Amino acid sequence: MGKNILPEGNTVGKWFLPEGPNSDIVLSSRIRLARNLAGIPFLPRAEPKDQEKVLEMVKEALNEQRFLEEGYFLTENELSPLKLEFLKERHLIPLDFVRSERKRGIYIKRDETESILINEEDHLRLQSLTSGMDLFSAYEKIENLDNTLSEELPYAFTPEFGYLTTCPTNVGTGLRASLFLHLPGLVITKEIEKVLRSLLEMGLVARGIYGEGSETKGNLFQVSNQITLGLSEEEILEKVTKVGEQIVEYEKKAREFLMRDFRLAIEDKIARAYAILKNARLLNSEEATNLLLLVRLGINLNLIKEVDLKTINILLILIRPANLQIYYNQEMEERERDEKRASLVRSVLSNG
Amino acid sequence: MGKNILPEGNTVGKWFLPEGPNSDIVLSSRIRLARNLAGIPFLPRAEPKDQEKVLEMVKEALNEQRFLEEGYFLTENELSPLKLEFLKERHLIPLDFVRSERKRGIYIKRDETESILINEEDHLRLQSLTSGMDLFSAYEKIENLDNTLSEELPYAFTPEFGYLTTCPTNVGTGLRASLFLHLPGLVITKEIEKVLRSLLEMGLVARGIYGEGSETKGNLFQVSNQITLGLSEEEILEKVTKVGEQIVEYEKKAREFLMRDFRLAIEDKIARAYAILKNARLLNSEEATNLLLLVRLGINLNLIKEVDLKTINILLILIRPANLQIYYNQEMEERERDEKRASLVRSVLSNG
After folding, report:
1. B4-14 residue pLDDT tens
2. Quick check: B342 and A268 CB within 8 A?
3. Mean of pLDDT values over B118-125
4. Neighbouring C-alpha atoms within 13 Å toward the C-beta of A60
5. What is the pLDDT of residue B209?
6. Sheet containing strand A26-35, strands side by side
7. How much is the pLDDT for A217?
8. B81 FRET partner, CA 20 to 30 A, in A52, A206, B53, B232?
9. Residues of chain B contacting residue A267, judged by C-beta atoms under 8 Å apart
10. B30 is annotated as contributing to ligand binding
11. Is Glycoprotein a UniProt keyword of this protein (chains A, B) (predicted)?
């Protein structure tokens, strides 16, 4: 039931492990490139046969360039609702892709650091994910993938506008650079509103971690560039990185302030979260996420030492509803999931 | 600062230890007798000099009968607001006594099982407390105290109305029999409303554990007879006992039902409560009470085995704001109390 789409010996994508720079605050960096094929109608007007043509061309190109053997190529008829949800929870597809009626496909490299969506909003969406604050190396990888594919595929490009895209906000470089941030300090001190407002003024945008329209829950935020036209790729990467570094500084200051002036209240919150995770018999997804994020903060503040960030990051993915079911290779109702989730978290943290 | 009013070697009143019958559900039984002295105006009309006279007469009677050496006699000028609150938390005085402007006093036997309020609502209120469901032995003790005092004091009594009291609902035997009940099963299954309504029909009344006007918080209830005229002492005791036994049966059934049909949810609630108590850095009085009562239920359901009922019952008293301060012999602001309370509970339960 889909265990085959899990990379062997690796329970979550490599990009979600806390290995990159500043990964106490920046969970990961993501680059997305929008590309379309010349001579085929863009998606809002593409017929099913056009969509199939795109799928064939991309698959062929991936095959030619030996990408297929490094990952998985799946089309929509191979993707059950559960598998789609699983991929969404792993940030490999957006909500629109789940809901779409089109002939669509996805290519995922085994370690989940690179992927390509076919017939989402554009003919191709190339995605690269890395751990921590590291947009430049994410970009390097995707540039490589993009260049290789461009040898096989006729991209729609004009010297005046650059890469042509379905949505005008993506025209130009077609590049969107995002950072996934964990900002409990700024949320608790209520500084976050100020930070989010100043982002807008700088042409950046903050969203929930599951993209457009998703709520910013559990102190997780996704910060991206708003426009892609008029700036070079390098300028976009530099801008988002610079702002990201600024936010990291603010978050560190907020944490220092909390530890200086509200240490006991923070210790209390974190000790309770850890205790509940180690003892609860039922845990829903939202509560588990919030508690794990508090423990994550506790580890970063040196208040919890028996468990490491990697374990918490892995749990943050595995406890999500579809991931949990695929992990246990078993379809489960909500109540059963809550029980299994609690039991998974309990056993992992007791051995932590 | 008042450690002297704590019985030596005994951290809470003997009546609060889980030694009596059905003490998994019935925390304790209480008997109160209202008595007034003939020839002295009843309290609403008594002048300060009348009030002093009552105090003197009672103290003299206690001395004559060698009660003074078995306990403490304290007048209102020896009772700081903190000590008054301490006594209220231990169910030795009611709220009215704390707020009163009268010359008033209290006699407390060392083990807190017997006490006498002087110039509360009546000249004398005799109180006897026992552990568990045991109104008859509580009554036996108080009858003894009452008889002995009546040798020294001229009680106001008429053959027609019995003992005369300030409030008409106490006229007659002047006896109020109460049970302190812990009814989480009935509360969780929402059967409690039905039970409380049927009590009223039988002439009984349910209140919060701190008497009239106090809320029924944390699944604790006080059930007493409503009227004292027209029934003999024995009839009152039998009636309250019979109803109490009925409630105990309902509560047992509710617990069985929960353990059969909602075991996991109950285990979850109890495991979380225990984990929070063992790990929190800050605990307010209300939360601590609710969590301790859940652990109490957990012990009674055999879900928690490392700690016993006695420990929980003692904590339920010691964590109350005034008791906590007197236990630590230190006046504390709310925040400091929350910290000390958490630390006391943590250390007791970790060694439990």
Report:
1. 444 444 567 88
2. yes
3. 93
4. 11
5. 64
6. A71-75, A105-109, A114-118, A124-131, A26-35, A175-182, A220-225, A204-207
7. 63
8. B53
9. 281
10. yes
11. no
Query: Which chain A residue has the Cα nearest residue B270?
Result: A280
pLDDT tens figures, A188-239:
999 998 998 898 888 898 887 655 555 456 689 999 998 766 788 999 999 9
Helix, strand, coil: what percent of chain B each, to 5?
50, 15, 35
Taking the C-alpha atoms of residue B351 and residue A340, their distance in angstroms, rounded to an integer, is: 31
Among chain A residues, the shortest Cα distance to B274 is held by: A279
User: What pLDDT was estimated at residue A8?
Assistant: 47
Show Cβ contacts of residue A351 under 8 Å, excluding neighbours closer than 6 positions: none
What are the tokens at B203? Answer: 């002439």
Q: Is residue B179 part of an annotated ligand binding site?
A: yes
Give the pLDDT score at A100.
84
The Cα B100–Cα B76 span in angstroms is 10
Rounded Cα distance, B227 and B173, in Å: 9
Nearest-5° angle of CA A151, CA A155, CA A156?
A: 160
State the best of B269, B274, B282 to mutate against chain A, taking most chain A CBs within 10 Å.
B282
Amino acid at A230: G
Domain-wise residue ranges, chain A: 14-255, 263-350
List b or e across B293-305, with b for residues whose CB sees 16 or more CB atoms inside 10 angstroms: bbbbbbbbbebbe
Rounded Cα–Cα distance for residues B281 and A269 (Å): 8
pLDDT (0 to 100) of residue A98: 82
In this prediction, the residues of chain A whose per-residue pLDDT falls under 70 are 1-11, 209-218, 228-229, 351-352
Of A272, A280, A342, the CB nearest to B279: A272
- Chain A residues within 8 Å of chain B (Cβ atoms): 264-265, 267-268, 271-272, 274-276, 278-282, 339, 342
Rounded distance between C-alpha atoms, residue A60 and residue B278, angstroms: 60
Q: What pLDDT was estimated at residue B38?
A: 93
- Cβ–Cβ gap B275/A271 under 8 Å: no
Distance CA A13, CA A34 (A): 22
Q: Token match 């260049």: residue? A: A147
Tokens of A296: 């994550």
Q: Which residues neighbour B13 within 8 Å (Cβ) at sequence distance 6 or greater?
A: B7, B90, B91, B92, B111, B112, B113, B129, B317
Report whether pLDDT(B233) > 60: yes
CB nearest A339 (choices: B264, B279, B342): B264
Q: Residue A28: beta bridge partners?
A: A131, A180
Q: Which of A334, A332, A295 is nearest to A315 (CA)?
A: A295
Angle, helices A285-300 vs A334-351, to 10°: value is 20
With bands split at pLDDT 50, 70 and 90, how would you rate the model's confidence at B15? confident
Spelled out in words, what is the top-level CATH class assigned to the domain A14-255? alpha beta
Q: So what's the pLDDT on residue B210?
A: 57
User: For chain B, what is the mean pLDDT?
Assistant: 89
Q: Which two tokens stand for residue B99?
A: 């707020």
| pLDDT number for residue A351 | 65
The reported pLDDT for the residue numbered B101 is 85
Contact B17, B131 (CB under 8 A): yes
Sign of CA dihedral B125, B128, B132, B134: negative
Distance separating alpha carbons of residues B193 and A232, to the nearest angstrom: 70
